[in-house]
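FAQ: What does a ligand-bound record look like?

Like this one, built around zinc ion:
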Amino acid sequence: MPHVRIGRTLLAAVAIVVATASAALALPVVAIDPGHGGGDSGAVGILPPGAVTGLEPRVNAQLQPVLFEKDVNLDVANRLNAWLMARGFPTLMTRTTDNAGGDVPYTDVGTDLRARTDLANARPAEIFVSIHQNSARTPASGTETYVKIGAPEPTQALAAAIQRSLVACLGLPDRGVRERSFFVVRETTMPAVLVEGGFLSSGTDVALLAQPDFRQKMAEAIGGAVWSYAGLGDPGPICSGAAAAPVLVPKAVTIARAGKALTTRAGINPRKGDLWIATVRDQSGNPMSSVPLRARLPNGKGVAVTSRPDGKALIAVPRRKGKLVVAVAMPGIAVSATAQVPARPR
Ligand SMILES: [Zn+2]
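The answer part, i.e. the structure of the complex:
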């Protein structure tokens, strides 16, 4: 049975608006497992001529451009991670780089798979989604979702939701939910599925998997199914294929003294003090523009903050010894910085 919790829909809607800390909302922890990595490329597909993948360029021994399963899986996983994080889900990626599970150099399959399930079991994650692409010696195309043999009802429901959503979004043949004793679905302690999005051995599927938009659709299809499985109702538009603008969360603010060179350009009268610059950074460390800030001067008074499109905000501070405090003025976001303002030199 899905984890139905009353009031989740409203809470999730709030999460989208303010993108605040997800822990308080009790959304399930989702482990995302990008299959293969490092020395294990996974399946390999021959790319059609001129394909622009948006991924690391790869060639085979004959110098033909190819698509590595590990690269597709990581890209879909990153997109799914962004989709879920933007909606307040706590997530866990078993790898975030071209490495083995736990982002360590690849050694062997057993160690790699164990590292992945250990990460998810230790958290513990409440949903586990392993992302793979298929390959076959005989002609085959389509989407499959795997669960462990004899998987209980919550796992079956999760798999059915993901398979249905993938088939609807990707439009590839529906090869159904299947049971197999894959390591990551067998050795995890929460509802776990392994998705095989498409076949790298199929020219049709490879041409699609090569496209960033198609991989975005795959991520949204999985995300939408996780959303529904979590009892949140209708996930809204999914499988658009266009990466939505990421929801940026202020994670840090820094303030620094900037002297007077910028003051005339900014139109701030610096005669009675110094100019300070506040920079807000998102979860990736990039500067954010248009984040509302409030500043409190050493004398305790508030002062205007002038935002600029480059993400730097200007604050004119009187030379009065004490603490300058700059804080993000958004509900649910407790991010601030403090600086020591020196006394005016005489
Ligand atoms: Zn695989």
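Follow-up question: can I read anything off the structure? Yes, for example: Residues 35-36, 42, 69, 132 surround zinc ion (CB under 6 Å).
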